[in-house]
């Protein structure tokens, strides 16, 4: 009697062993885990507050040192304002311009405009129109014809950045608005008591050659 014993099949077990890491990579990984915990732990301590504040103060000091403000622009005297048919108001509230209840100027034509830094508006003369301006926003030079001013024949005043000005240019009187501010734009409202036809001969252009 014979018997047959079957052979037991062999099983292959594969074990993947990662290659050994170098000491430098192990140290780097360890520091990456430690650094955030050290910073977080330090910031949670009470004595870290002066250190953080000193950093902010240092950054603020650098910001102030790098800031360069434009030089102040000298303003005109009140005597020059009268010759230029001009009155000044502070742009800060309360302002007299908001309390004035004497009435309003009637405008047949009204326009609003912006004058960029170093730019010019006007430099013309209307023969049949009275014009009133409200000026603000930047340092502005306002020039208006005035025969009472000897030699040059015009009055010229400088308007400050923080002022709101109401100025008048009667008919047959040339005027010009010059923004002398290096940074800010100037703004104006022009009110005319009649409709202006710029294509007609009732307006003289480029009156002053030095502008």
TrEMBL record:
Give the compositionally biased regions (Polar residues).
1-15
Q: Mention any one GO cellular component term assigned to this protein in its UniProt record.
A: trans-Golgi network
Q: Which InterPro entries match?
A: RmlC-like_jellyroll (IPR014710), RmlC_Cupin_sf (IPR011051)
Q: Where is this region: Disordered?
A: 1-29
Q: Where is the signal peptide?
A: none
* PANTHER family on file: OS01G0810200 PROTEIN
Give the protein's recorded name. Answer: Uncharacterized protein
Which species does this protein come from? Trifolium subterraneum
- Organism ancestry: Eukaryota, Viridiplantae, Streptophyta, Embryophyta, Tracheophyta
């Amino acid at each position: 009697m014979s018997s047959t014993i079957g052979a037991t099949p062999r099983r292959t077990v594969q074990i993947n062993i990662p290659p050994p890491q170098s000491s430098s990579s192990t140290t780097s990984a360890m520091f990456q885990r430690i650094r955030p915990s050290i910073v977080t732990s330090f910031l949670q301590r009470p004595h870290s507050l002066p250190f953080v504040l000193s950093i902010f103060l240092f950054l603020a000091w650098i910001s102030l040192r790098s800031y360069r403000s434009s030089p102040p622009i000298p303003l005109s005297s009140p005597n020059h304002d009268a010759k230029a048919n001009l009155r000044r108001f502070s742009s800060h509230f309360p302002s007299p311009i908001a309390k004035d209840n004497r009435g309003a100027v009637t405008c047949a034509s009204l326009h609003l405009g912006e004058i960029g830094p170093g730019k010019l508006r006007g430099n013309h003369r209307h023969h049949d129109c009275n014009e009133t301006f409200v000026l603000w926003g930047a340092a502005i030079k306002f020039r208006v014809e005035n025969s009472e001013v000897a030699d040059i024949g015009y009055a010229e005043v400088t308007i400050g950045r923080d002022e709101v000005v109401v100025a008048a240019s009667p008919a047959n009187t040339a005027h010009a608005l010059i923004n002398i501010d290096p940074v800010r734009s100037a703004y104006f409202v022009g009110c005319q008591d009649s409709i202006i036809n710029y294509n007609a001969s009732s307006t003289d252009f480029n009156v002053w050659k030095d502008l």
